[in-house]
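Example (one chain per record):
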Amino acid sequence: MQAIVKAKQDAGPAADYPRFRAAVAHAQLTGWLPADRRFLIDISGPGSRSAEVAVCAGHNVLRVVDADMAGPAPTGYETGGRLSTVSADGSGLEFLSDGCADGVIAENRTLSLRLAAEDVVAEIARVLKPGGQVLACVDSLTFGMSVLAEQHRWPHLVDVPNADVVLIPWPDGTITRCYGSEQLRELLTGGGLEVSWIRPRTVLSPQTVSYLLTRDPSNFAELVNAELRARSDDSVGTQLIACGIKSGLPARPAPVPLRLARDAAGGRRPRLKARLGNRAAAVRASPVAAVVDPRERGQHLGAVRHGRLHRRRVPVRLG
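Predicted structure:
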């Protein structure tokens, strides 16, 4: 952060807020990165430096760039880790195997620029290992409503709070997808991720930042630290950031052996000698229930009705 401050020291008041936001984003990414070396995938696009930040922290990073936006391939980079860059189509992750990554970085408004964000999130969840995390940045509804107001699109502005998907046209013809906190939460959970937190990128307004830094430019670092400590409603700010986690897979229950035998007394009707214990509800599965004596099945279901058995799927072996 101090390096950013020194490099931009003479930029002037007009650049105060972009410089401030860049320093906050850098600190937030650094705070999110794992402490030990991991394999991370960066899908933040060619305009982001998040991959380099992760490499400088010692991680191995694969940067995946949309083929339509790739341009000249960035050069390799090594600082205690390694950075590789590839271009890909679609959601950009189809060529990667399941559970190959410890984390995914989706900075620089990735899930706003890719309008079919559900497909992207599903791919992120697929390539993450159990316990892996994603850091995502999106444009907020606050930002989208301000753009609509500047364009005098008042009917569209009225509909924004009730819309499931909010697409905002920019004057240059591009479109951004904007999210409220609940919409962003639904996007991540619908893709198979658990939401750890959602917060604004910045709480302080551009006017406040410019005013304070114009009065005393030496307070830049203190202002950034104040922003990082701020806790506010996640509906404010022009951008939202979120952390999603892929939950660990549940342990597979041990198979329960079943033994089929012919009725020793009559020698005609097959019946089931079940060794299910308190998991006897599994005999309700149709392939098994067909060979169970109805009277025995009724005894098992009676126990279920009285709440003495728990309904759950149990793998079984028939022999």
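Caption: The longest helix spans residues 16-32.
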